[in-house]
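As agreed, record copied across for absentees:
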Amino acid sequence: MKILESASETLLRLEKRWGIPLTGLAIGVVLFLAATVLVAPRLTTVGGAGLSPEFQNLSEEPFNFSRNSPLQYRILTPLLAHVLMLRGRLYPVFPLLIGVALLATVYVHFRKSSSPMTSAAAAAMMAFSMPLLSSFFCAGYPDAVSYLLIWICLTATSLPLQCTAFALMLLNHESTAFAFPFLAYRPWNQEPIRKTVLRAVLLLAMFIPLVAYRKYVDLHSAPLLGAGYYLNVAAIADNVKKVAHFAALGLFEAFRLFWYVVLFALLVLVRSRKIGEAAWLILVVGCACLPLVLACDTGRFTALAFPAVLLSIKVLGSHFDKATLEKSLWLLFAANFFVPVYFTWERQSAFLLPWPILFLLKLVGMDGWKI
């Protein structure tokens, strides 16, 4: 396709002038802005989703235990925003900036082994699915930071860096503990079993800072969302009933048509008898669904499966020529625009509207966020 060839040449010129990292950052900004046309981002926690105001409060005073914040255990994102002076009303901007960073790092990583347009397609698939769009609906939630840390943990070659990223993501949100299996087991590396065991042991050791911090918090405060809140039979049973209502829709909406990339990659891996890699893709999706036993935001937690989509692009890249892969990925990207975007939680769902429509609805006195 001439359009793809022309775009690829443009990206190559930009990379030559600016370098790949700056080009990746520019692509991240462009994709972010384009995604805001598809789904309008909230820029305030007022009237926002769930616990958004509590995260904003933490950004103002991260260690003010007298507030007895229910989110005191999930300190990393508010603390980083506090340090970077994005506090209070400015706080919702911080997770959005991290979303841009995620898109940029995806592009830069893919450029190590893929063409510019394949790398841009990988970043675009993250921009137009729940890894970014969930931050648009849930203003101020820390998920974008978790996704960036998971991506760093998964792609970094340094084991100390992997462990540091894992320790930080646990302090960001305890649900990221469910990512441990697919972060420890990496069949495509063809590494000796002792290295896999070593990584698993070291990642497990990263729970120590989390436990120590939670013990410290417990001495000074009593956060509502502690282990006792989630880990009881009645709460789990009630949550499963809530999740079941929109579970299928929530899982589909995490990536909508981009799930086809995972399905095709699974088919390719099974036919190639690469059972370990195929099992890893299934493991990632399974790990993303596990938090739904304890919490009911299907629109957020199923986005944890984003590494399956990204690795699937790499799998397909090793079995198809560059032109075929680029054309297929971008056609799928275009087709995804015809699928409505819903965010689901408990027994509810919200149709996420583009900002021009939200603006028009506001002119006639309607709240587009409640449709």
